[in-house]
Amino acid sequence: MAQIGAHLLSxxxxxxxxxxxxxxxxxxxxxxxxxxxxxxxxxAEFTITAxxxxxxxxxxxxxxxxxxxIFSLLVDVIGYKNSMYIAFVLQTFSVILTLVAKNxxxxxxACFCAGLGHGIVEAVINPLCATMYRTAKSKMLNILHAxxxxxxxxxxxxxxxxxxxxxxxxxFLFMLLPIIAYGIxxxxxxxYPVDERVEANVPMKDMLKEFGGLGIFLATTFLFYELGNHLxxxxxxxxxxxxxxxxxxxxxxxxxxxxAKGKILFFVCCLIMIPLATAELATDTxxxxxxxxxxxxxxxxxxxxxxVCSAGIMMFLRFFAGVPLKYMSPPALxxxxxxxxxxxxxxxxxxxxxxxxAAFVAYAVGQTFYWPTMQGLVAEQFPxxxxxxxxxxxxxxxxxxGIFGFPFLGAVxxxxxxxxxxxxxxxxxxxxxxxxxxxxxxxxxxIKRAEVLADESLDAExxxxxxxxxxxxxxxxxRVAAVxxxxxxxxxxxxxxxxxxxxxxxxIHLEAAADEGAGDAEGxxxxxxxxx
Length: 532
Prior knowledge:
Elements: E1 2-4, H1 11-37, H2 39-46, H3 50-58, H4 63-78, H5 80-100, H6 104-132, H7 137-144, H8 147-162, H9 168-171, H10 176-188, E2 191-193, H11 196-199, H12 204-228, H13 240-258, H14 264-290, H15 292-299, H16 304-319, H17 322-327, H18 330-348, H19 355-368, H20 370-381, H21 386-424, H22 426-432, E3 438-439, E4 442-443, H23 449-453, H24 460-474, H25 476-481, H26 483-501, H27 526-531
Parallel strand pairs: 1-2
Antiparallel strand pairs: 3-4
């Protein structure tokens, strides 16, 4: 594999690399939507709660942070092609494990391998895209990330048209189609661009300074917390205080060694990714089951089609992200998305009739630009950070959605399920309630829905009535989710005000070193860079 300056790549080579990257991300979208479509099937087959299903789904997301951060440091050493081969093996292995899973332990490992492979994909394709298209990073990252909803549309359509003819395990075989395709395409690519940071001779120490002590603090805290939940050591499981202490020590140590606290704006972007990832990813996971009462009863539409339709809107709009970016900055576009999400989620929690379709459109538009535009913002403001800052901001979201997002919405749904059963059939609530359930120290009521609905005291009519009551009550979960984009909207308003005080939003560019002896490239926007 030869590495050359991005400007030396032919358009044919760029297109091959770009669309191979597109298919790699689409493969992850396939796996995600398959897992989104089957939470009730998993709950019934393995007799687990909604929160436990959320933890399984989260296992396919939080490991992304591990490989994204690790490969951000390794990708310039081992190369893009070798990294994608590793992702290929992990994603293929995840499909095989899913096919043979007979219990939740094997299923968890299948999700975990999918997450690791997806993380490597993200760690490679994001800096690869930003390097090839340096003057249009936000636009091209949006187009690249149209692959995610494209995978959801294709995978969701396959699932919804095939699930009554095939078992859910067999449907996962379709995920191999984009995996095999991108594996072949990356094999056929022989020349890859040198990362923008490397070409500008920015040393790794300067890259880590962009990340700084604050970035190390966040990454270490969340990684330690999540790993502690899976190491089987009771003292570590759910121990947020210890995680904060470990993260604090790591952050201070890194800050002292690097002599850098890290960029404040980057730290803020990482914090914003916590509600952003939950609003985009975790909400999609639960929305099909939460919207079942309306779509099934009023329109006889399977709720899974709501996810496919919203992803279709997202895919279309991301392909044309360059249009709004001509008229507004990335922070302004993110604010617009947050406002759309607020209205969309709030309306979805109570809308009926034709209004529900308008709510879905607002919800889909709100989701569209979140992820790639945030990455574009980071790529444009912190080019010295290279793959590290670009991938870490996404890693923070993917890590925390597994730690917080999925379990949070799962716990909220469990609570509403319990309230519905308690109000309608108190004797069943007393029989099947789960004691001592808590989320980050906050106690809540929970039941095992599958066991309640399978109780012998329920005849067919009573079971149908109770199912509808539980579904209607659980729909309130969507209203709780609307709090997340509200937090984001406030943050983006403050960010816009800050950029206004700095003379407006400006992308920062690095200049390629004139020769091997050139020092750090300061770029054409040194004044703006020093401000952030």
